[in-house]
Specification:
Distance between the termini: 41 Å
Bound molecules: beta-D-mannopyranose
Helix content: under 10%
Radius of gyration: 18 Å
Shape: globular
Strand content: over 45%
Number of helices: 2
Length: 339
């Protein structure tokens, strides 16, 4: 019997492995990682930082693919088991609201979220520099690009999977047009996905440990639980050998998700295995999707590894919430560490 209730669909064949004996962390990796390796299809060198949903008894992914000319764009993929993927030969073709072709110069780090029966792709797009792109689909055939929610520069847009008090909510992270050496997570709301406002600060970089001291950014769509919105995010530390990206966890208030109820002082997953430590960009674990099976509370997290591979890792609602609560610290302007 689960301690915490989760509001989600049932995914009977969610990828899963039990926690290895003796493993100490709250999230454990799939033994068959990485699930998408280098050069998976002709013309594509690397696939990573990608989003997945479960829909009509199959898994559908929106993948960040980099061509052999190193240009990031988005591709659709399908899978029966969430592990073995068939990725489209062509990139996703967007149209605008008048039905005219729309092709972003580059597109990366997609999230894929269903709200009220419509699937939304949120990604980092080119809008005079990196900004948040937004598109919708109901059939995974026509992808309609909507107005950009924010002016540049901004990344890591993450929609909540339902409206809250009748408003869409999105996390985002204001940035620069390079490798942004700063960044906190903010939240904004909209009645219609066109007009965005009531911007609030959610979480700032920092904490008593250093793994999230440089910047933080949203990850998968938050998971609705009886304890609040279970939110995985990425935290970055700068080192003399460059940035290191880890996965962190927090629980946001259900009705007012700008309020952080619990924030874990420890990372939940950090680069440790060769496919995370070595690749195009070393030392990166970057989560973009987390699927949960309501029946068992099992969670499967999809993350990019070293900007080169797609990998998955597992936890449960009970295990990860308990870990976050047991290792909670309050950080931020309104409380906590006294900075
Ligand atoms: C960020 C984004 C991510 C990438 C990370 C590490 O700025 O570009 O796509 O995984 O850097 O290179």
């Amino acid at each position: 019997m689960s301690k915490y209730h989760v509001i989600a669909q049932n995914i009977p064949n969610l990828p899963w492995e039990d926690k290895p004996q003796g493993f100490k962390g709250p999230i454990w990796r799939y033994s068959g990682n990485p699930i998408i390796k280098r050069n998976p299809i002709e013309g594509i060198a690397r696939v990573f930082n990608s989003a997945v949903v479960y829909h009509n008894r199959e898994y559908i992914g929106v993948f960040r693919a980099e061509t052999v000319a190193t240009l990031p764009h988005l591709r659709l993929g399908r899978s029966k088991d969430g592990i073995n993927w068939v990725i489209d030969e062509e990139e996703i073709k967007f149209v605008d609201e008048e039905g005219k072709d729309y092709r972003p110069y580059y597109a990366y780090d997609p999230r894929l979220v269903k709200v009220d029966g419509v699937f939304y792709i949120i990604w980092c797009t080119d809008f005079y520099g990196p900004s948040i792109g937004l598109a919708k689909t109901t059939d995974f055939k026509t992808f309609t690009r909507l107005e950009n929610p924010f002016i540049p520069y901004n990344r890591n847009g993450v929609l909540f999977p339902r409206k809250i008090n009748n408003k869409f909510k999105i996390l985002s992270r204001a940035s620069d047009n390079g490798h942004t050496p700063f960044g906190d997570i903010f939240i904004s709301e909209s009645p219609d996905l066109v007009y965005w406002g009531r911007h609030r600060h959610v979480m700032e970089r920092g904490g008593s440990g250093w793994w999230q001291s440089l910047k933080i950014g949203g990850g998968p769509a938050p998971i609705e639980t009886s304890e609040g919105w279970l939110t995985f995010y990425h935290g970055v530390v700068n080192t003399c050998n460059g940035y290191v990206y880890s996965i962190g966890g927090a629980i946001l208030d259900l009705n007012e998700p700008s309020i952080v109820k619990y924030r874990c002082k420890n990372y939940l997953l950090t680069p440790e295995l060769s496919y995370e430590e070595t690749g195009f960009v070393p030392n990166v674990v970057f989560p973009c999707a987390a699927l949960v099976d309501a029946e068992t509370g099992r969670i499967c997290i999809y993350y990019g590894a070293a900007d080169t591979y797609v990998a998955i890792a597992f936890t449960t609602v009970d295990e990860v919430i308990t870990y976050i609560k047991n290792n909670h610290e309050s950080v931020g302007r309104d409380g906590g560490l006294g900075r």
